[in-house]
Amino acid sequence: MSPPRESSKARKRASKGADVEPALKKARTLTKRKKAAVPRQEVVWTEYFHDLQKVFKALNTVLAFCSSRKHLATTFSVVRSSVEALLKQPLDLSKVAELKALLPDVIKFGYIPRDQLLIHSSSSASSSTRAPSPDFSLHPTPAEDAHVLVLDFLDSTRGTKPKNTNLALAPPPSLTPAAVRKLVEKRNERFALAVDELLQAVLEGEDPVLLLQAAARDHIPVNPSLSTKAPAAFSDAKGKGKAEVPAWEDRPSIDAIIQELEGEEWYKGQVVERRVFAAREGRTGALDPPLSETIRAALSSSRGISALYTHQVAAIAALAHGRDVIVSTSTASGKSVIYQVPILRYLEEDDAATAMLIYPTKALAQDQKGALEKLLGACSGLGHIKIATYDGDTPLEDRRAVRDTASVIFTNFDMLHTSILPHEDLWRRFLKNLKIVAVDELHYYSELFGSATISKPAEHMKNIFGLEDVEEITSDGAPSGRKDFLIWNPPPADPVDPNLGRQSSLAEATGLMRFLMKRGVRVILFCKIRKTCELAMKALRADLSSEGRLDVLNKVMSYRGGYSQEDRRKIERDAFSGHLLGIVATNALELGVDIGVLDTVIMLGFPMSIASFASPRQQAGRAGRRARDSLTVLVAQSLPIDQHYVLHPDELFEGGMRDLLLDLESKAIVEVHLQCAAHEMPLREEDERWFGPLTRELCETKLARDGDGWYHAHPKYLPFPAKHVNLRGVEEEKYVVVDVGRFGRDGGVGHIVEEVEVSRAMFELYEGGVFIHQGLTFMVQEVSHDSKLAKVIQSDVNWITEPRDFTFVLICHAIARSNEWFRNIDAVQTYRIREIRGSDHRAFFGRVELFTMVFGFFKVRNRKILDAVDLETPPWQRETTGAWIDVPKPVLELMRDKGINVAAAIHSATHAFLNRFAMGADLMTECKVPEKEYKVSKSSRKRPARLIFYDVPGKGGAVAAKAFDHVSDVLRDAEAAVDSCPCEEGCSSCVNSPSCKEGNVVSSKLGALLILKSVLKIPIDADLISDYYGDPDGTHQTIVEASHVRAVNGVEVEAATP
């Protein structure tokens, strides 16, 4: 084994006890102390290594200078001439390869596409308020190669930010002379350590020089323009070359693929946890009374079903006896058969019978509609039965025919609310003959239309439908194949220097996906947000093209919200038919759509809850849906919550599912639904059984009563109350993205790419920015905010853009004037004030304003800023309601004295509060940005010391008011959870939130505990906080004491709940 590999192993052993994510700033604990430096053992070097050290030092000096110049390309030809001038001798390629062999994770020495050195697109419109920065990178000529050799350090720093910047990110200036010296010294020490490790690892009788030279041969770069060699990472490195993708039936077993993967040269121990769950045989039962011969024949011919599983038998039998039923079994366990069979039975008895099937998504309804049509077509005597979809995509001219002729409709609660119930007279035929109502994916309807996995199915169904008796069926009789679960942690960028962080989790996830697809494994990659979905698709497109695997690329697509109806239907057809090898998706495909034969689910980053991970729950349950072996992989990101589960995997596999919640006591929610119900049919006090205990009060105070005692909708809601109530909140306006690349040429017309909600458009559509769709890049040419239109042109650029923006969450009013943002601040009136039990502090409820400004963007490549562009865009202002708690002044002073970052403490305390509030997922807060809170220089923007949480603008629901009402209980639960949690620096059980937009990087468990104790008036022993906890003078605080917010006249302090 070559010395560099021994060296790598030694480095891994040395770093085994290091922090999992040292690249992120960590919250400190009470007892943390500075560690003493461990002296390095003296090792005798030969003259050869002293000469090699001179080469390294010269190279180090040149690259340290280059790294501070962001537009200076570190091509080997440029670097070589400068190094040779220092050495006074030629720099041989083999010497650099030896350095690469010694420091494989530190030195970048290889070919890259020449166009990756470009930072401007010829097709982009110049829309910045200043001219683009000069471009000193290389520009190709027709005679030049397509690739260029680059030499650089992977730890290249770009200097500190100027002290007068107010930006969280900024284009970096040159390093100061002191910073250059420090960087050079650090790298020189790193080289010396690598040589020591090599010499210590060499066995007796071996020549370290010969071993190093032999290892260096593998690191001599090969020009891809002259070679077909594929990228090393996740490629078939054992000489297999390009192989045909095997048919799904012939693919290797998952176990065999994992073994092969772990034997690849690029594998670096990424699998940190593996769990295997054995296959399970199916259990069938017999129906009494049995199915008719025609139904049995239809099931056999259309679905291949010859027997029913035990849970299907139990549910169908219960329905036959008139029972209300809920079934909670694994994904793809045949739950749709449970309502399909009764529908066929009813129609056999009376072809006038009707059924309503309710789904949360259009894709899910389309999938199931096709399955039922096929089953009915195979059932003798029922071929004339009409099935129809009735949703927002149903043309207006077709809706009357659906009402008059359809026997089965596939719809959603939105249409039931806005179209069916308000026009009950038009639907009377259908409703009078209604025999069965099936609601699929019932767990979707929790909180304010959030999604979760169900733990108490019967209770949830009783609550949501107002039923008293529900039969719960949870024993799963369906078969299940063997399931492998992996936790995959990207390797460190350099095992010895943890400050460099880890390899890109996105590159690891897409690389693993490529590896699996080439072996015939059908994969779905789940991303938490849309942008990550598109970046993953972009990476797959680039890497598969580089490998020459267009056969695989042509069978990969992304799927997310925002795509046009035509694009969604095409992707769904390809997915359902099994044509696709890979899908990159957001949670738009989390629900139970049968997307064909899936073998593997890869989750990029910890999902929003444990319930979304553990089988057979939502995302993980997508794989192995047809009783074949399957694989689920969680690719951990560098965020604290991901790394927590890397260290504590049992919490993932053994964590229980949470209860689903319905807010049936919110006056705001109940009132609007009473208005709608009273318009459909007048109400009486007896209707309390359907609408809950608030019915009487709200009818008397909010509705209009007639002389006979019936309650009608209030006139202000007329003529159509349902139009005032959107089940999913206020629907956002959308920008239309149009590709105008062929407009006016050869008869070409503009093509609609997709529609983008205003809340996304502000951060994705700005002139000069890069918009990504299906992994393809488009340059934004023009944006009209008046007509909500964005014109784009497809352009093959090798960078992305990140908006430069800020959002203020205000409980005070900001008047924005040109060049005078936030200078006039008037207090907004507080609506309510409440005591906190056992404390003299108060909680407040009132109006919250959000003000967002996108003032520019960065061009980014490989997480490095290439350029900064200024923009002038209109601000985006929203208004909502929220609750807040001011942080007491004494604890602010205590944290400052001890060097605790106050912003981190407030951030963690707010998450701790929301973690303990049952409907916390429906509230938002101001997540702290690490680039701002951990800046080297002071920030001019100061925020008030408040825990603040607010309702999602436009969604309604008054959830913040509910949190305000229970503030004392929630605060005490949060304090107890943080105080008793055994973790050292915070986890999802105490102060970390899976939904934190900034990844919980700005975090302080100790600070959160101090704030919670202070608000609750629980004594704090300041002596327990170490004097060495931090450096108060070196900590830049961005938080100031909160000022009083004026209350409306007549507001009285409400007593705390007992």
From TrEMBL:
Keywords tagged on the record: ATP-binding, Helicase, Hydrolase, Nucleotide-binding
Keyword set includes ATP-binding: yes
Source domain of life: Eukaryota
Statement: the UniProt record of this protein carries the keyword Nucleotide-binding: yes
PROSITE patterns, per database record: HELICASE_ATP_BIND_1, HELICASE_CTER
Record-linked SMART domains: DEXDc (SM00487), HELICc (SM00490)
GO molecular function: 3'-5' DNA helicase activity; ATP binding; nucleic acid binding
Domain Helicase C-terminal per the UniProt entry, residue ranges: 511-689
Domain called Helicase ATP-binding: residue spans: 316-472
Family matches, as InterPro entries: CDT1_Gemini-bd-like, DEAD/DEAH_box_helicase_dom, Helicase_ATP-bd, Helicase_C-like, HRQ1_WHD, MZB, P-loop_NTPase
Pfam families in the record: CDT1, DEAD, Helicase_C, MZB, WHD_HRQ1
Biological processes per GO annotation: interstrand cross-link repair; nucleotide-excision repair
Gene Ontology CC annotation, any one: nucleus
Disordered as annotated region, ranges: 1-25
Name of the protein this chain belongs to: DEAD/H helicase
